[in-house]
Amino acid sequence: MVLVVDGLRTYFFTSGGVVKAVDGVSFSVGNGEIFGLVGESGSGKSVTALSIMRLVPPPGRIVGGRVLFDGKDILLMNEREISKIRGRKISMIFQDPMTSLNPVLKIGDQLVETIMLHSGMGPTEARKKAIELLTDVGISDAEVRLEQYPFHLSGGMKQRVMIAMALAATPRLLIADEPTTNLDVTTQAQILDLIRHVRDVYGMAVMLLTHNLGIVAWLCDKVAVMYAGRIVEYTDTVTLFNNPLHPYTQLLIKAIPRIDVRKERLESIEGEVPDMITLPPGCRFHPRCPYAKQICKMMTPQLVEVERGHYVECLIYDSG
Questions:
Q1: In sequence order, what are the beta bridge partners of 34?
Q2: pTM of this prediction?
Q3: Which of the 8 DSSP states describes residue 229?
Q4: What are phi and psi of 193, to 5 degrees?
């Protein structure tokens, strides 16, 4: 396994109380695998990724668990050790390419600097590498683009530049946090195809964070469904869509629009994501769950394996 996350806990200690943004999360990502972490906004996906990168901003703090990268625990590394991994062996594409690029620097300056930082190349060699990377991510006239500023590029082109930067050191793991946010549908499809392409070409593992189960179905090999800081279901993608077991997963799948089914009104999930400071007792999903019983309000379920490789956090399946 490239990455093993085991019991990860990341809390934010605020004046209003403790926000348990990530609370006992476990999953693994294999070589060459595309792993999807899916959930609503506020579920803890981005904080999970930032925890893996050791980039959690204050007042956040990783308070427990392990993050094993190639068998070594990232959480036990000092700053010098983690700096050798961050950006080189693990790269991250952030949500909004519009704000991730410096608007006053040329594309070439930013990309060449990244390549030099992670590879030790000189300016001339790094520029050649930059042209190769831009070409690899589907940007034509790469030499011309190097001389342009971010405002000259469309949203999709900026995202391609961000992917090129992430590939600068040929990482073992690429984390993509909502990489198609604010892009039109056609460009979204192109970016997702590009992610699959770079996985195939570079042989890296990919961890994709998204709220869109349609993207997961199209792109991912394995998937974990996250709700209120916890993994509630975890399995391979085919199994998840053929046999969703957690009520939250079932409702998410029902809410996906389908062209082969005519409905007057789309399905929706009643209620709201809970306040992360004052979480409900017992199962965190019980206030929105159509199958909730009295025990769900009192007892916290654990993630259990109900069939080979298929894990669910629900009292229906928790015989312990």
A1: 206
A2: 0.90
A3: T
A4: -60, -40
Structure tokens at 145: 């683009």
Q: Which residues of the chain have pLDDT under 50?
A: none
HSE value, Cβ hemisphere, 13 Å, CA-based, for 59: 9
pLDDT tens profile 292-307: 999 999 999 999 999 9
- CA–CA dist 181, 216 (Å, integer): 15
Rounded Cα–Cα distance for residues 56 and 8 (Å): 13
Q: Which residues contact 288 (CB under 8 A, 6 or more apart)?
A: 248, 269, 270, 271, 272
Question: Rounded CA gap, 146 and 164, in Å?
Answer: 12
Spatial distance between the Cα atoms of 109 and 147, rounded to a whole number of angstroms: 8
Here the tokens at position 59 are 């007042």
Element (H, E) at 5: strand 3-14
Domain 3-89+171-274 = CATH 3.40.50.300: yes
Distance of CA 296 to CAs 6, 93, 102, 184, 318, Å?
25, 38, 49, 41, 11
Judge whether 143 and 153 are in contact, CB under 8 Å: no
Are 247 and 314 in contact by the 8 Å Cβ rule? The answer is yes
Q: Give the closest residue to 250 by CA, choosing from 285, 278, 282.
A: 285
Looking at residue 186, its pLDDT comes to 87
What six digits make up the tokens of 114?
A: 């990244």
Going from N- to C-terminal start, the domains of the chain cover 3-89+171-274, 100-168
